[in-house]
Amino acid sequence: MNERWTEALIPDQSGRTVLITGANSGLGLRSAEVLAAHGARVLLGCRSPERGETALNQVRAAASGAKPELVRVDLADLASVRDAAAAVRELTGDALDVLMNNAGVMATAQGRTADGFELQFGTNHLGHAALTWLLMPALRGAPAGRVVTLSSVAAFGAHLHLDDPNAEHRPYRAAAAYGQAKLSNQAFGIELDRRLRAADSTVLSVLAHPGYSATGLTTNMASSYQNPLVRTTLREVGKLGGMLLAQRVERGALPQLYAATAPGIEGGDYIGPVFVARGRPTKVRTLAPARNPEAGTTLWELTAELTGVTPDPR
After folding, report:
1. Which of 184, 269, 273, 289 is deepest in the core (most CB within 10 A)?
2. pLDDT at 299
3. CA torsion sign, 304 to 307 to 308 to 312?
4. What average pLDDT does this structure show over 72-79?
5. CA angle, residues 290, 291, 293, in degrees to nearest 5
6. What is the per-residue pLDDT for 216?
7. pLDDT digits over 43-55, tens only?
């Protein structure tokens, strides 16, 4: 792999259609701009119509080929996920080249999705898993569809509480819940790869993480704590980390852009910064708990039960 890879090396994306969740800001918006500039038809998956329209205008200004389009999707509401999947299938004629599962909520105060799930697990994992399964016919309809699922360095040291994924029988901790959600993203991407390979599918499941990027993670985490001293301390640590470690969004988006476009990518590859927190994108190793086949199977079956969506990885 080219350790000096930059977005300038992205192949021409003309004729390809990409759906990016959370495309109204941060890594998602940057990915949308870059892919549109390289000729892709970009579908911006956004929860807020207002913020979506603002992002759409920004991506339109960068586009060199097909006009970008807005798809409303609230990953914390499975009815919205179903509607969005149906809209994407109609818009694409069942030919979607890339699904970039980018959106997420980070270290929030305890909350619930529209369907009653813990907010971070429900949004970051369940919403994306359901969307992926519902869009599988469109991904199969493309010559070489790819699912790019974003994990995070927050998955390090996290645990999969698959007997209590919604924190109903244990104390809620915002950071731990976020870590579980991002470890679930990783385990889901790996399990999806296993099942796609077993089915001899042409669709690839790939993973990526942005390292430590300036997207507001520490600020969001700080605001979830009730203790004013803890909130203030975390905000100050975030500022210091931002100055010393955090890379710009332009750099943070490179791993997911590489995963979505680079030739030679294989199913199950995990792309992240070469120095973990920052640096050029490179292939990195997935975490052992996410690679555990038993955990992958359990998460897969639990996800199908909770979402009511029938998995179809072929």
Report:
1. 184
2. 98
3. negative
4. 98
5. 110
6. 52
7. 999 999 999 999 9
Cα–Cα dist 117/5, whole Å: 39
Q: Is the pLDDT of residue 239 over 90?
A: no
Q: Structure tokens of 207?
A: 């993973």
Q: Is the four-CA dihedral 119, 121, 159, 148 of positive or negative sign?
A: negative
* Geometric angle at alpha carbon 104, from 153 and 150, rounded to 5°: 45
Question: What are residue 17's DSSP bridge partners?
Answer: 41
Residue 69, classified by CB atoms within 10 Å of its CB into exposed (0-12), middle (13-18) or buried (19+), is middle
Q: What distances in angstroms separate CA 311 from CA 49, 86, 102, 186, 272, one per listed residue? A: 29, 16, 20, 17, 27
Helix (H) or strand (E) holding 291: helix 288-291
Lateral strand order in the sheet of 98-101 = 69-72, 41-46, 17-21, 98-101, 146-150, 204-208, 270-273, 281-283
pLDDT tens digits along 273-287: 998 888 899 999 999
**pLDDT confidence tier of residue 215, bands split at 50, 70 and 90:** low
pTM: 0.91
Structure tokens that stand for 129 in this block: 């898993």
Dihedrals phi, psi of 244, to nearest 5 degrees: -95, -35
Report residue 256 as tokens. 């997911």
Catalytic residues: 178
Structure tokens at 59: 């991506």
Write down the pLDDT at residue 167: 94
Q: What confidence category does residue 230 fall into, taking pLDDT thresholds of 50, 70 and 90?
A: very low
d(CA 32, CA 63): 9
Q: DSSP characters for 141-192?
A: TSTT-EEEEE--GGGTT----TTSTT-SSS---HHHHHHHHHHHHHHHHHHH
The Cα 116–Cα 108 span in angstroms is: 16
